[in-house]
Amino acid sequence: MPAILEGVRVVELAEALAGPYCAMLLGDLGADVIKVERPGFGDQSRSWGPPFVGTESAYFLAANRNKRSIALNYDDPSDRDVLARLIRSADVLLCNQPSLKSLRLRGLDPASLRLRFPRLVYCSITGYGFTGPKSGKPGYDILAQAEAGVMSFTGEPNGLPMRFPVALADITTGIYAFSGILGALYARERNGGTGDFLDMSLFDSQLTWLANVGSNYLNAGVPPERWGNSHPSIVPYQPFQGSDSRFFVVGVGTQAMWLRLLHLLDLEATVGNDPRFVDNSARVLNREQLIPLLQAKFDDLPSAAWLAKLAAAEIPSSAIQTVAEALSDPQCAARSLIVEIEHPILGITRSIANPIRYERQAIQYRLPPPQLGEHTRVILEELQATSLPGCGSR
């Protein structure tokens, strides 16, 4: 069976994480992704390290499988012509240049390209989009986390605002862009072949992480507090320690689970009859009194023993694993969540698998992250040999 996006060409004129991550997901579905990079430097994330694996940064390896790399200086007229031919052959263009003025000078702005190539799906990824008072301002993940309000309620109750250590805004924008592009390609097939323009931004995407917190403020006027590892609306729903000082988490989402926890901890006669803890609403209001009582019970046995007892009682719980433990978890192996691809210089390169699971379609891991300009000659030969009608006429 052909790959879902077999025959779809994506030109990635993007660096760092959000755009490359989106392009990698498209490549996983079978698209021919051509990564356009600056000669001599390439994608800025190639230098983001340590750690490095040979000459490549581990950061770059995380988001660039299933791509071919061509090195072009599109300020040079001849290379600009090559880029124009590449875009002419493309179904999707991914670009993360925030300055419309700069794009217009190079003839790469959405209006110009979509006028020339009506079938083109043009996806722009910037910090703030092309409208609004902050349009054109450079964007980084930490800025989006800060300005979208997420950092204000992340961290311990009496601590500082906290950045989530993974690039939430970048990854989220990449995933939204990926789904938006799929939608635009589907719509193109239904509307007679006309593409679309996606104006994606880190700020917009990060704002969606407010979800229920945003709803609390918009509908009830209640701003969020910092709860650390606790939950603002469910108690108990947080880490505890066993007698071996190892942490595990317990999530009691229903009253039936709460009753089972009381039985397991032999607290039915005491905590179970205390009106302060009679239901979840009461437990939320009196969490400071409740949590020490539960922790005192958990002090009796090692964490592994408690996890076994909690599982037997059908109470959601889990060890807090390190990254090494998570990546070696038997669930990872069973679900094939670590991808191994042979690299011509580095040997085996590993990355986190695409989490999409189809019954009839296979996710394909064909190409390792490319070396800078590795496929320049091949791509130029393809452009020379193939007479492509382009998005404007096919």
Instruction: Give the N-terminus to C-terminus distance in angstroms.
Output: 24 Å
Across the major sheet, the strand order is 5-2-1-6-7-8
Number of domains: 2
Structural class comes to: alpha/beta
Tell me the strand percentage band: 15-25%
Q: Which segments are poorly predicted (pLDDT under 50) over 5 or more consecutive residues?
A: 388-394
According to CATH, the homologous superfamily of the largest domain is: Crotonobetainyl-coa:carnitine coa-transferase, domain 1
Mean pLDDT: 93
Number of helices: 16
CATH class categorisation of the largest domain: Alpha Beta
**Helix percent band:** 25-40%
According to CATH, the fold-level topology of the largest domain is Rossmann fold
Radius of gyration from CA coordinates? 25 Å
What's the main sheet like? Answer: 6 strands, parallel
DSSP E strands, number: 13
The string of secondary-structure elements, in order, is EHEEEHEHEHHEHHEHHEEHHHHEHHEEH
CATH 2nd-level architecture of the largest domain: 3-Layer(aba) Sandwich
- The best one-word shape is elongated
In short:
37% of the residues lie in helices and 15% in strands. The protein contains 16 helices and 13 strands.
3D architecture notes:
- The chain has 394 residues and is of the alpha/beta class.
- The chain has 2 domains: 9-210 and 329-385, 3-Layer(aba) Sandwich (Rossmann fold), CATH 3.40.50.10540; 247-319, formyl-coa transferase, domain 3 (2-Layer Sandwich), CATH 3.30.1540.10.
- Helices cover 37% and strands 15% of the residues.
- A 6-stranded parallel β-sheet has the order 5-2-1-6-7-8, with helices on both faces. Strands 9-10-11 form a 3-stranded antiparallel β-sheet, with helices on one face.
- Helix 1 packs across helix 7.
- The chain is elongated, with a radius of gyration of 25 Å.
- The chain starts with 8 loop residues before the first strand and ends in a 9-residue tail after the last helix.
